[in-house]
Design brief:
two-stranded antiparallel ribbon, 5 helices, nucleotide binding, alpha/beta, EC 3.1.3.5, 11 strands, Stationary-phase Survival Protein Sure Homolog, Chain: A
């Protein structure tokens, strides 16, 4: 099996190194990752300017490429480069992200978007995250990723993206794994103003996650809040099927 691994924290991040090391025990791993930090890039792609690709050494990878594009670019161009070298990618893994990708945050996430790009390329894909921007505990995240490769591959189709999130705790301190659905991910957010010295004001986005009470425990955000890892199946089809017939009655066509 051939696996393409990418991320949004950059090719030198600790998370991708741990993921490649784990997956290389069960598959041939190829790395195509951003040359620098690209967090919260969403599903942006590069148009109107070139993408630079540099082959580099990466421990545990058969080949690795440092790419100046977005996480989605890395999957899109990575699969093409490997295909030209007669290497068929069987699965895409994105991560391990430093910071959770839960609920509505998945819409902003470069990590999840890279996995979705894999799905758009016709490849079953997995996004993996640890819920801390200073994460140090990758053990369970790696184990779940390897299990997704071993046990999920034959059952997944190209429309499926598994979104794995774990607490930043030693494996023995995590309460378990829950299979979940997306929830809301809200923040007590604000923009901190800062003068930049030339008469203009810069605004820096900051925020703290809202702590929820009384919500079902099958929501990914609640599972994480309660000390569990979560696995959520995602798809790129965002159609609201319950409204397809309803909107016909709105007579929007005049």
């Amino acid at each position: 099996m051939n696996i393409l691994v990418t991320n949004d924290d950059g090719i030198d991040a600790a998370g991708i190194s741990s993921l490649v090391k784990a997956l290389s025990q069960t598959a041939e791993v190829y790395v195509c990752a951003p040359h620098t930090q690209r967090s919260a890039a969403g599903h942006g792609i590069t148009v109107g300017k070139p993408i630079e690709v540099e082959e580099t050494a990466f421990d545990g990878a058969a080949k690795a490429f440092s790419i100046t594009g977005t996480p989605a670019d890395c999957v899109k161009i990575g699969t093409k480069i490997l295909s030209q070298q007669k290497i068929k990618v069987d699965m895409v893994f994105s991560g391990i992200n430093l910071g959770g990708n839960l609920g509505t945050d998945t819409l902003y996430s470069g990590t999840v978007s890279a996995a979705i790009e894999g799905s758009l390329c016709g490849i079953p894909s997995v996004a993996v995250s640890v819920n801390s921007h200073e994460a140090t505990h990758f053990e369970l995240a790696c184990e779940l990723a390897v299990n997704a490769c071993k046990n999920g591959f034959q059952k997944m189709d190209a429309r499926t993206v598994l979104n794995i999130n774990t607490p930043d705790l030693p494996k023995e301190e995590i309460k378990g794994v829950k299979y979940t659905r997306l929830g809301a991910r809200e923040y007590k957010e604000f923009f901190r103003p800062k003068e930049n010295g030339n008469g203009k004001t810069q605004y820096w986005y900051e925020g703290n996650p809202v702590i929820y009470e009384g919500l079902p425990d099958d929501i990914d955000v609640i599972s994480m809040q309660d000390g569990y890892a979560s696995i959520t199946p995602l798809q790129y089809d965002m159609t609201n099927y319950t409204l397809v017939d309803e909107i016909k009655t709105w007579r929007l066509e005049g």
